[in-house]
Amino acid sequence: MSGEDFLTGQTLLIDKPLEWSSFQVVNKLRWLIRSECKIKKIKVGHAGTLDPLATGLLLICTGKFTKTINDLQGQIKEYTGAITLGGSTPSYDLETEINQTFSIKHITPALIHKTAKLFLGEIDQFPPVFSALKKDGKRLYEYARAGQEVSIASRKITISEFEITDIKSNTLTFRVVCSKGTYIRSLAHDFGKALNSGAYLSSLRRTKIGNYSVEKAISVEEFKNQLKKISK
């Protein structure tokens, strides 16, 4: 693959590492392509953000293929991960500390599976206050970190599959297939409320976007090594 190929357009399947932002991955790949292929300027973008605490499939588009980003973002997505019961956090995941604890003595496997079915289909979901969505020109997480309350409108999303794959103590593992705009952190939070117990997202991995699978994805380091072989 040459520099000209990247300019013409490529869709790269990258397995995003833990604690990297999607923006950091885009910047790293842009820098690698420019430096290894001796290109002064190239467009690079991603088709759907993953939180820093999530791993998995990130679609990176280069050159003319950046025009396809909107179409890719609209594809159905699949995630796997873990939800921890009995506590809640302001960010709905492990970005912030647990601020409330709840009893889970009343929760049974039957109740968990029954409750999961309540989230199937089209539902109203409120995005987390710790998110990059904008309101009045500012990111929601900027208001949240400043301790400012802000009203957030709900949005219609579709959960086509929500499978609880394992239950161990207070931790559930799951698989979700959902529409664009779904926040799995909000799903975990709302799931805890529906169980009359708090819950937060304790791990998340994106496994599919449309027909693209993380099984075909490579790490940033593998991409770097491939580029070095090309440029020799």
| Largest sheet properties | 9 strands, mixed
Total helix count?
7
Please give the alpha-carbon distance between the first and last residues: 12 Å
How many structural domains are formed by the residues?
2
Helix proportion: 25-40%
Which parts are unreliable, with pLDDT below 50 for 5 consecutive residues or more?
none
- What's the helix-strand series? HEHEEHEEEHEEEHEEHEEH
Kindly provide the radius of gyration, computed on alpha-carbon positions and rounded to a whole number of angstroms.
19 Å
Oligomer: single chain
Helix/strand structural class: alpha+beta
Number of strands: 13
What percentage of amino acids are in beta strands? Answer: 25-35%
Report the top-level CATH class of the largest domain.
Alpha Beta
CATH topology of the largest domain: Pseudouridine synthase
Explain what this protein looks like in three dimensions.
There is one protein chain. With 232 residues, this protein is α+β, with helices and mostly antiparallel strands. It folds into 2 domains: 3-74 and 212-231, Alpha-Beta Plaits (2-Layer Sandwich); 77-209, Pseudouridine synthase. Helix content is 28%, strand content 33%. The protein has 7 helices and 13 strands. Strands 1, 2, 3, 4, 7, 10, 11, 12 and 13 form a 9-stranded mixed beta sheet that branches. Helix 2 packs parallel to helix 7 (220-231). The chain is elongated and about 60 Å long. The mean pLDDT is 92.
